[in-house]
């Protein structure tokens, strides 16, 4: 009787220990997967942020170019080549603003000006400057 009790006791003890250790091992594996997935998600966010920063940097350069051309156009209103550059710069600027979803950061009058100039670029199919 003592032998069968000890055998049963050890069998139950092994089952209990295994029963508790399996969920712990599964949790460790799950935790590793979650961490791996979270790192992948964070990498995706970082890549998207870097791409958005590149777009914003391009937009800033294009805005500076647009403003410089605009000043020259005001000084030389009869220079058609300069006006074509202005129209192209406006179209490219508007495209970058739209691509980055930054419309709410710009004044409506400025966006309207870019839109109207972009229409001219679309109608005449002016090549980029």
Topology:
Layout: H1 2-75, H2 80-99, H3 108-124
Walk me through the structure.
- It is a single chain.
- With 129 residues, the protein is mostly helical.
- The protein has one domain.
- The chain contains 3 helices and no strands.
- The longest helix is centred in the N-terminal third of the chain and has 74 residues.
- The N and C termini lie far apart (98 Å).
- The model has no long low-confidence stretch (mean pLDDT 80).
Short description:
With 129 residues, this protein is mainly α. The chain contains 3 helices and no strands.
What are the segments in which pLDDT stays under 50 over at least 5 consecutive residues? none
| Total domain count | 1
| Coarse shape | rod-shaped
User: What is the percent of helical residues?
Assistant: over 70%
Order of helices and strands: HHH
The total of helices stands at 3
State mean pLDDT (0 to 100 scale).
80
Task: Work out the oligomeric state of the chains in this entry.
Answer: single chain
Largest sheet: none
What distance lies between the first and last C-alpha atoms, to the nearest angstrom? 98 Å
Structural class: mainly alpha
- What percent strand? under 5%
Q: Could you give the count of β-strands?
A: 0
The radius of gyration is: 33 Å
Features:
129 residues, mainly alpha
């Amino acid at each position: 009787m003592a032998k069968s009790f000890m055998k049963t006791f050890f069998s139950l003890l092994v089952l209990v220990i295994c029963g508790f250790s399996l969920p712990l091992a599964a949790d460790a594996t799950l935790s590793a997967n979650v961490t791996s997935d979270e790192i992948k998600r964070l990498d995706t966010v970082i890549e998207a942020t870097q791409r958005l920063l590149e777009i914003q940097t391009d937009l800033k350069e294009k805005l500076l170019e647009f403003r410089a051309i605009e000043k020259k156009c005001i000084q030389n209103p009869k220079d058609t080549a300069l006006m074509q550059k202005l129209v192209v710069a406006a179209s490219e600027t508007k495209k970058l603003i739209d691509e980055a979803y930054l419309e709410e950061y710009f004044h409506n009058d400025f966006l309207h000006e870019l839109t109207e100039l972009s229409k001219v670029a679309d109608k005449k199919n002016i090549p980029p400057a």
